[in-house]
TrEMBL record:
Keywords in alphabetical order: Magnesium, Metal-binding, Transferase
Entry keyword annotation includes Transferase: yes
Cofactor: Mg(2+)
Keyword Metal-binding listed: yes
Family, per entry: Belongs to the FPP/GGPP synthase family.
Record's protein name: Polyprenyl synthetase family protein
Record region (Disordered): 66-97
Pfam families, A to Z: polyprenyl_synt
Top-level taxon: Bacteria
Length: 370
């Protein structure tokens, strides 16, 4: 499993591993099936290397709260309801296969795997766009798409992935397309709000949480809901998973903010201090500037130099000040408060291995170092 987690239940861990493998294979096949080899290389660039694969994992966990095929003990086996046994047309057995020019396997993926693949499609598309906005050079330990092929290609490739996500969601039914389109809108609005920044009337911290809810929490919440919806989980369970995902997603972004300052590029696969260098207002920075602590004035000056100067001038000193002034500790406190709210939501779900996974994921976010 990409996140290298175990959950105390060997059978569940094995199911999740099979589901992750199946969704990654589906995504690689989708990219490889692009009609142009150059497009295939670009859109598949981030399906190969590392990455935590948190969103497909969450979709698979969400699917655990629904119903399995009664004829199978494996929820990731071929979905008999997704195939037409009377047809000899291989494309008829794969309703998700939207490119008839490519060869596809004869068996359709399970509902859970479809949800996992859809969640990762939307997420990777957002990474392509994010890296353009952030002028990132690396992603998942490899050159970012924009660094290797340029901004225009990266934006178009992200659009290609979003179009495939919409196409898959439409094929999976009205509830799925409604969820996917709503979250895509939240994602784009979050990106725009981050780009524009807060107005003079906005509270910077409130603006930060609005951006994070759109850019990060919405995707994580969507992943859980997709899995649950696709396997017919009760509505109250779907809504509880959505609430859990919103809080986990905000906590996850705060941990990213902290790691941008504390983690090296060798560990994280991204440049250390990149958000600082391009002027992204992360939570530790906002907390450091929110009052008149002694370091605030110098930090403002250094961050201005970091965004305006060559090679992030003043950045090492800014990182040192953030360590010293207590803002990182405050950010961790906020993160743990969000994780507590996520745990509280999880406590409203049926007890069992899948719910225990949700608690284990809170532990993972609390202690992650990359």
């Amino acid at each position: 499993m990409a996140m290298e987690l175990t959950f105390g239940d060997p059978a569940l861990t094995a199911r999740l591993e099979r589901g992750m493998d199946a969704s990654e294979e589906w995504l690689r096949a989708l990219a490889a099936g692009a009609q142009d080899p150059c497009v295939a290389e670009v859109v598949g660039h981030l399906f190969g290397p590392g990455g935590k694969r948190l969103r497909p994992l969450l979709a698979l966990v969400g699917a655990e709260f629904g119903e399995r095929d009664p004829s199978s003990t494996d929820p990731y086996a071929t979905d008999p309801y997704a195939t037409d046994p009377s047809s000899t047309d291989p494309y008829a057995t794969t309703p998700y296969a939207t490119d008839p020019s490519r060869a596809v396997e004869a068996a359709a993926p399970s509902r859970a795997v479809e949800a996992a693949a859809l969640a990762e499609l939307v997420h990777v598309a957002s990474l392509y766009h994010d890296d353009v906005m952030d002028q990132a050079h690396t992603r998942r330990g490899v050159p970012s798409v924009n660094a290797r092929w340029g901004n225009t290609t990266a934006v178009l490739a992200g659009n290609w992935l979003l179009s495939k996500a919409a196409q898959l969601a439409a094929e999976l039914g009205p509830e799925t397309i409604q969820l996917q389109s709503k979250v895509t809108n939240r994602l784009i609005m979050g990106q725009i709000r981050e780009l524009v920044g807060p107005s003079d009337e906005d509270d910077p911290l409130s603006h930060y949480f609005t951006v994070v809810a759109g850019k990060s929490a919405a995707l994580i919440s969507m992943a859980l809901q997709l899995g649950a919806v696709r396997t017919g989980a009760p509505e109250h369970v779907v809504q509880t998973l959505a609430e859990y995902g919103e809080h986990l997603g905000i906590a996850f972004q705060i941990s990213d903010d902290i790691l941008d300052i504390t983690s090296t590029s060798e560990v994280s696969g991204k440049e250390q201090g990149k958000d600082l260098a391009i002027g992204v207002a992360s939570l530790p920075v906002l907390l450091a500037l929110a009052d008149e602590r002694p370091e605030a004035g110098e930090l403002r000056t250094l961050l201005t130099a970091a965004t305006a100067g060559p090679e992030g001038a003043g950045l090492p000193r800014a990182v040192a000040l953030l360590h010293r002034c207590g803002a990182l500790a405050e950010a961790r406190t906020v993160m743990h408060a969000r994780l507590l709210r996520a745990r509280t939501a999880a406590n409203g779900l049926p007890d069992g291995p899948a719910t225990r996974v949700l608690h284990a994921l809170c532990d993972f976010v609390a202690r992650r170092d990359h």
